[in-house]
Amino acid sequence: MTTIKQEDFISSIADAFQYISYYHPVDYIKALHEAYLKEESPAAKDAMAQILINSRMAAEGHRPICQDTGIAIAFIKVGMDVRWDTKLSLEQMVNEGVGRAYSDINNPLRGSMLSDPDGKRKNTGNNTPGVTHVELVPGDKVEVIVAAKGGGSENKSKFAMLLPSDNIVDWVLQQVPTMGADWCPPGMLSLGIGGSPEKAMLIAKWGMMEPFDFHQLQARGPSNRAEELRLEIFDKVNALGIGAQGLGGLSTVLDVKVSEYPTHAASKPVALLPNCAATRHVHFTLDGYGPAKIAPPSLEDWPKLALDFKSSRRVNLDGITKAEIATWKSGETLLLNGKILTGRDAAHKRLTDMIAKGEKLPVDFTNRFIYYVGPVNAVRDEAVGPAGPTTASRMDRFTRTMLEKTGLIGMIGKSERKDVAIDAIRDNKAVYCIAVGGAAYLVSKAIKSSKLLAFEDLGMEAIYEFEVKDMPVTVAVDPQGDSVHKSGPKVWQAKIGKIPVVVA
């Protein structure tokens, strides 16, 4: 009978979460590189290049692929012949491993878990608790999958109780455009069909742990209804032209998974979960002979790419004016130099509350740019840890107040802005730029210094001042209110031509 020791299990969990923080699955890298080679949209191709280069840098430097190091998830299949040498529950052991991994001094990971979720929302500090799913199965081994799922893609999860006669493909095609680029495409879409509501969500999450194997399916053809759905959804979603980072292009999804479970005659539960450019998971088995040994991948499987900024405009943000940004156009690429401020949800809420009360702000935003970011803590000689952009639309409700009451003229974040923010940007002749989601370590290399300015108690959401050198961004909403996230997908949907373009 196999005996699993407490320390072997905990250390295996900790090692696995460290591993996935800096190693993409090789099957994802190969799928993304193939899409990169076929991509015809210059903006999308550049975004994919940054993700691939960032991935190699993270693997070489053993630093996080993305600043959002995710909610820690563990799927565990426990053989019924296994004995445990432990005084802790399985969930407690998982949490001990998660806490150990996220507090590692050599590669600290960002703690994103908040207790009291509808109240004080206090950070737990070490990203615990994780989310643990356990299944008892025949056998004498313990099989584990750990995954780290970022908030941007989790927030775009969809679920519906469809009628038995409803068309699932039609429902998916209604949902995907509403997801925009917040989930950092290109990535995977995983569907769970059937069971009960919670079962559909769970099997969809299980499905996204499967390898990227879509080309094998295309080559051999479908053998069941689930595979027919995979092929149809893949083609029709990519025909939407959303593209990498929502900039417009050929590849929005690299694979589609469909998992099924029998369901009630009156029901058709359907879950749709996206997995982003920071796809992170690893599988291991414990057999009673010590902790798991997870072999590192060969970096020969990573393409060797170089960034090309020859066509990018280099700008100095120190002393920049509205007159200068008035010349910037949607879709233009820039290299930012100088000082920028940081701040995201919690800081914006506090700032706008202070404005409403007539209180003096702790920072002067006049003619400044703010970067929506919550970086990983720095180690060794880093100015800041991986520092990719967070979802900008969460700041939409604060945008008009910030532009009209503080003197702010520029914002940097991830993915599209809603009309309420675009209108405020146009009315105030401001600008919104995007950095590439999924390129956090690459972006951090452009940050040369970091200084805390305000709201220290907010941790990674505090306001800092970064000094940047040649930070790559794309103008997403220009001072005229033109949005590349609206124009880009329309252009590429028309080029692809598989789905009729709907003219507003």
Provide a descriptive summary of the structure in words.
By secondary structure, the chain is α/β, with parallel strands linked by helices. Among the domains are: 150-283, no CATH class; 313-488, fumarase, CATH 3.20.130. It has helices at 6-22, 26-38, 42-61, 90-102, 151-154, 168-179, 197-207, 214-220, 225-238, 322-325, 345-356, 396-405, 419-427, 440-444, 484-496; strands at 3-5, 71-79, 83-85, 114-115, 122-123, 131-137, 142-149, 158-162, 187-194, 253-261, 268-275, 281-286, 313-316, 333-342, 369-371, 410-413, 431-434, 447-454, 463-477. Helix 6 runs parallel beside helix 9 (225-238) and helix 12 (396-405) runs parallel beside helix 13. The chain is globular and about 75 Å long. The mean pLDDT is 95.
Q: Please give the number of β-strands.
A: 19
Strand order of the largest sheet: 14-15-16-17-19
How would you classify the helix and strand content by structural class? alpha/beta
Estimate what percentage of residues fall within beta strands: 15-25%
CA-atom Rg in angstroms? 23 Å
- CATH architecture call of the domain at 313-488: Alpha-Beta Barrel
CATH class of the domain at 313-488: Alpha Beta
Calculate the mean pLDDT score and round it: 95
- Alpha-carbon distance between the termini? 66 Å
Per the principal axes of the C-alpha atoms, what is the gross shape?
globular
CATH topology of the domain at 313-488: fumarase
Helix content: 25-40%
